[in-house]
C-alpha cells in the first residue's frame, strides 16, 4: 500500500423515485451514464465511501458531493435541477495534499501552491480568479464562492488547463477544500 493513496470501496444505491421508491441500481465504481441502468434517479443512499454525482452524463454539469447517508429527495437537498445522470467514486487518500492554482487559463498569471483548505483566495492571495490548476496530490473540491459555498467542482490528480473547456464557462472558483474524510 503506497503512502500517496489507497482505494476504499464505496457503494451507492440509486432509486428512480423520491424516498427510495421504484427500481434501484447499486454502483461501486464510476458510472458515466446512469440512463443505461435507470430511466431517472431522484433519491440515493451512500452506504460507504464518497461520491460526486452529476446532472449530466460523462461527469458533466452540476456536481454534488455525497458522503455516507440517505438522500430521500436529493434535488431539494442539494439544489440540483435535474436527475442524477452520472457518478464518480472518490478514492480515499492518505498522504499530503498539493494543488497549484492559477489566475488564468493555461497556467497563466499569478500562481500559488495549496497544501490545505483555502476559504477565500481573494483574502489569502489577493487573487481575483482561478481559471486553471494542477493537482499533484489528493482530491479537492473547488467552490465558486468564498467559505466553500455555491457550485462546486471535483478535481483529482491531473492537469486542468481550462475550466471553461470542462463545461465550467463563466465559473469563478474562490475557495478550495481537501476531501479528507474517510467518508
Describe how the helices and strands are arranged.
Blueprint: E1 11-17, E2 21-27, E3 43-48, E4 50-56, E5 60-66, E6 69-71, H1 74-78, E7 86-90, E8 98-104, E9 108-114, H2 121-125, E10 132-137, E11 140-145, E12 149-155, E13 158-160, E14 175-178
Antiparallel strand pairs: 1-2, 1-3, 3-6, 4-5, 4-7, 8-9, 8-10, 10-13, 11-12, 11-14
Organism: Pagothenia borchgrevinki (Bald rockcod)
Family: Belongs to the beta/gamma-crystallin family.
Protein name: Beta/gamma crystallin 'Greek key' domain-containing protein
Plain-language structure description:
With 183 residues, the protein is mainly beta. It folds into 2 domains: 11-90, Gamma-B Crystallin, domain 1, CATH 2.60.20; 98-178, Crystallins (Gamma-B Crystallin, domain 1, Sandwich). Helices cover 5% and strands 45% of the residues. It has helices at residues 74-78, 121-125, and strands at residues 11-17, 21-27, 43-48, 50-56, 60-66, 69-71, 86-90, 98-104, 108-114, 132-137, 140-145, 149-155, 158-160, 175-178. β4 (50-56) and β5 (60-66) form a beta hairpin. The longest helix has 5 residues, at 74-78. It is elongated and about 50 Å long. The two termini are 19 Å apart. GO terms for molecular function: structural constituent of eye lens. Crystallins are the dominant structural components of the vertebrate eye lens. Keywords: Eye lens protein, Repeat. It comes from Pagothenia borchgrevinki (Bald rockcod). This is Beta/gamma crystallin 'Greek key' domain-containing protein.
